[in-house]
Amino acid sequence: MLRYVGRRVVSLAVSLLVASVVIFLALEVVPGDPAAYMLGINAQEDTLAALRAELGLDQSRVERYLSWVGGMVQGDFGTSYTYRTPVAEMIGDRLWVSLPLAVYALVLSTLIAFPAGIWAASQRGSVVDWGVMGVTQLGVAIPNFWFAMLMVLVFAINLQWFSAGGFAGWENGLLAGLKSLTLPAVALALPQASILARVMRSALLDTLGEDFIRTARAKGLTRGQALRRHAVRNAMIPVLTIIGLQFSFLLAGVIIIENVFFLPGLGRLVFQAISARDLIVVESVVMFLVFAVVMVNFVVDLTYAWVDPRLRGRR
């Protein structure tokens, strides 16, 4: 098991190193000068030079990269060009919106998908199965931002059950914060629940055809008992993969939804930083999100080893 974990840690470190290089170089080729953007087109050259020196833009690319990576290792993500605020503080403030939103959406997605996928698999070929698959196909096809705007129209404008946007703040209570995140979480969760339900159904149907399931049936278990006691656990490997990928997507891919609902999260921060050419904020937030994605995949790999002990002994 320790060797398995060690290999995954090395893979994690290499992935982060490669991602940091790609992110840094991708933003380096973006045209334009942040100092000129901040001071305007009429700025004097000496003023521009002073600001570049203050921001560290007069250094070579290698020096800037090493300074950026070295700072991140120590928890220093740099200082925003626009707000003159440490980026780490900005990420910390916005994370308390994006992370609960991603977790909320993932919980909703799982609570919807597991029963739907298991129900469809247990009723294979029936009207129930066709109905569940039809609904999930529709959920996959509908863009989440369009569904989000539809929910705003119905539940915020017409029924007035929720606000159309904004975040109440956790200081106003857990229920107030969750209510602000409910519509965005549902908009994010339903397409993901559709994908997860289809994967759950397919994995269960594959598992139900295995020899150990036929043996369990021969010993007197009904199809439903064999499914609940044996098939579900053994079908979890592909399902865990999708759950890990979905959480990564939900955390790193909320830019559109956060802008639809005017949520002060990481997605909106990236959008605002791109608009202001605040490149240190963009690259630091993206690197943080990459780190979160890689860590989620690392946890998923460890969960694989827990679910399937055969993986622990692989060399």
Automatic annotation (TrEMBL):
Q: Which family is it part of?
A: Belongs to the binding-protein-dependent transport system permease family.
User: What species does this protein belong to?
Assistant: Roseovarius indicus
Return the CDD domains for the record. Answer: TM_PBP2
The UniProt entry lists the main location of this chain as membrane
| Record's subcellular location | Cell membrane
Which cellular component terms (GO) are annotated to the entry? Answer: plasma membrane
Q: What is the lineage of its organism?
A: Bacteria, Pseudomonadati, Pseudomonadota, Alphaproteobacteria, Rhodobacterales
Tell me the InterPro entries matching this sequence: BPD_transp_1_N (IPR045621), MetI-like (IPR000515), MetI-like_sf (IPR035906)
GO MF terms, alphabetically ordered: dipeptide transmembrane transporter activity
- Which residues are the signal sequence here? none
The protein's name: Nickel transport system permease protein NikB
UniProt keywords, alphabetically: Cell membrane, Membrane, Transmembrane, Transmembrane helix, Transport
Q: Which Pfam family, just one, is annotated for this protein?
A: BPD_transp_1_N
Per UniProt, residues of the ABC transmembrane type-1 domain are 95-300
Gene this protein is translated from? nikB
The protein's topology relative to the membrane is: Multi-pass membrane protein
Q: Where are the annotated coiled coils located? A: none
Q: Which segments cross the bilayer?
A: 9-30, 101-121, 142-161, 181-200, 235-257, 285-307
Mind telling me which PROSITE patterns this protein's record contains?
ABC_TM1 (PS50928)
